[in-house]
């Protein structure tokens, strides 16, 4: 299970780009059929995901209760609980794919928002890559994009722990001089096929 410090290293000089995107960020896109939108007012972030993805409440330490309410049990529940245990008590949006959760590895999404440290749209890609490199990320690949009218960057990288696994982080400059970071952690040797579609639904909450 992978979950990076999603806003690590996000600081620089310069003016924020948030003022340019305030009106565009106000509305969330329509949720595709078979998907649902998950929100975390505490984090200030929302995303839309397929129905098989569920929110796990790591903030309040209610991991088992989150799984029970979602009807997840057996080996899948055990794998998700093991993966989420290291995040217990942290304030972040944590969402897991209940399909194929096994062996201690699960496809997951973790996200949070915070001050952007003065990073501009032009600096976002370089600053994000540098921050991940300082955290030990390798094989870094990046591209810029726009999400809901807001400047964003998508960075793929490898994390080598007990076993090497791939992750993707999407950072979005949002209104109010903030940045939201969403990290997709993937089971070794797998990809999240809906990753790009999920990324397009990232929205900050007021």
Distinctive features:
single chain, 206 residues, alpha+beta, three-stranded antiparallel sheet, 4 helices, 17% helix, 34% strand, globular, disordered N terminus
Question: SSE layout and pairings?
Answer:
Layout: E1 35-40, E2 45-50, E3 53-55, H1 63-70, H2 74-85, E4 93-97, E5 108-115, H3 124-134, E6 138-147, E7 150-160, E8 164-174, E9 178-185, H4 195-199, E10 203-204
Antiparallel strand pairs: 1-2, 2-10, 3-4, 4-5, 5-9, 6-7, 7-8, 8-9
Written overview of the protein:
The strands form 2 sheets. A 7-stranded antiparallel beta sheet has the order 3-4-5-9-8-7-6, with helices on one face. A hairpin with a 3-residue loop joins strand 7 (150-160) and strand 8 (164-174). Helix content is 17%, strand content 34%. The longest helix has 12 residues, at 74-85. It has 206 residues and is an alpha+beta fold. The model is unreliable at 1-5 and 9-26 (pLDDT under 50).
Distance between the termini: 30 Å
Low-confidence stretches: 1-5, 9-26
What is the total tally of β strands? 10
- Strand fraction equals 25-35%
Please give the share of residues in helix.
10-25%
Provide the structure class.
alpha+beta
Order of helices and strands: EEEHHEEHEEEEHE
- Tell me, briefly, the overall form: globular
Largest sheet: 7 strands, antiparallel
What is the gyration radius calculated from CA atoms? 16 Å
Mean pLDDT: 80
Please tally the helical runs, counting DSSP H or I stretches of 4 or more residues: 4
Biggest sheet strand order reads: 3-4-5-9-8-7-6
């Amino acid at each position: 299970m992978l979950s990076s410090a999603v806003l690590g290293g996000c600081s620089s000089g310069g003016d924020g780009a948030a003022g340019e995107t305030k009106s565009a960020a106000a509305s969330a896109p329509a949720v595709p059929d078979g998907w649902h939108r998950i929100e975390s007012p505490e984090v200030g972030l929302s995303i839309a995901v397929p129905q098989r993805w569920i929110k796990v409440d790591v903030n309040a330490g209610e991991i088992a209760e989150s799984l029970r309410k979602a009807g997840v049990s057996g080996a899948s529940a055990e794998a998700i609980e093991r993966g989420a245990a290291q995040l217990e008590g942290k304030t972040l949006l944590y969402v897991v794919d209940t399909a194929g959760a096994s062996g201690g590895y699960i496809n997951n999404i973790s996200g949070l928002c915070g001050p952007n440290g003065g990073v501009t749209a032009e600096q976002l890609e370089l600053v994000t890559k540098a921050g991940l490199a300082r955290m030990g990320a390798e094989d870094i690949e990046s591209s810029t994009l726009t999400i809901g009218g807001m400047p964003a960057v998508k960075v793929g990288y490898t994390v080598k722990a007990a076993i090497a696994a791939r992750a993707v982080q999407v950072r979005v400059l949002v209104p109010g001089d903030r940045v939201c970071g969403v990290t997709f952690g993937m089971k070794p040797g797998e990809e999240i096929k809906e990753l790009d579609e999920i990324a397009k639904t990232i929205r900050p909450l007021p």
